[in-house]
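W.,

You were right to be curious about this one. When I first looked at the sequence I had no strong expectations either way, so I just let the prediction run and decided to look at it fresh. Below is the sequence, 72 residues in total, followed by the output.
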Amino acid sequence: MIKDELGKSATLISDAISEFLPILHPRALYEALRYPLDQGGKRIRPFTLLMAADAVGGNSRNLIPAAVSVEL
C-alpha cells in the first residue's frame, strides 16, 4: 500500500515540477532543476509532506506547491 502511494506521489510531484519549470529563467537554472527530474526518483521528501497532511486531516492537493519546493 505504501509503495502504491509512493508511486502515485512521485508521479504527482514530477508532473507538478514539469508544470512549474517552464516559468524559470535563465535557461541554465531551468536545466539544472530539470536534470534530477529526468533522472527519476522516489520523491521521498514531498511524499512525506503529503502523507503528513493526509494524516492530520489536511488536503494534500493544496500542498503540491510546497511539496515541489521541498523536492527542488
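Here's what jumped out at me. The chain has a mean pLDDT of 82. And, maybe more interesting for your project: The CA atoms of residues 14 and 40 lie 8 Å apart.

Coffee later to discuss?

I.
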